[in-house]
Here is the input.
Amino acid sequence: MISDDLARHLHDRATHGESLSEDEWKQLKDWYAFQDSAESSLLDLTVTGATLATLQAHIDVALTQLTTVTKRIQEVYAENIVLRSDIAALRRQLASRSIPQPA
Here is the structure.
């Protein structure tokens, strides 16, 4: 199963008329089917009550989403560390240059 972010990106591309590869279409259709199933399950919960299996499926989906978001936060954090280091190096370079004095 692809991440929600990737699926939303593919959905956005498809709805804006961009072409998708055969594999991307399959991934998007699978994601649509999963979303439909999750929605149907949710609607069934309000009508017939929740089963343990249905609740576990919802928990699994939430954990998958949480894992994806956590991974992205870690990636952004690592990128920020690199950027802060680059900024510090640029500031050191700038500070080491002689500043012309007015005459």
User: Anything to note?
Assistant: Residues 34 and 40 are 10 Å apart (CA to CA). Helices lie at 4-15, 22-48, 52-96.
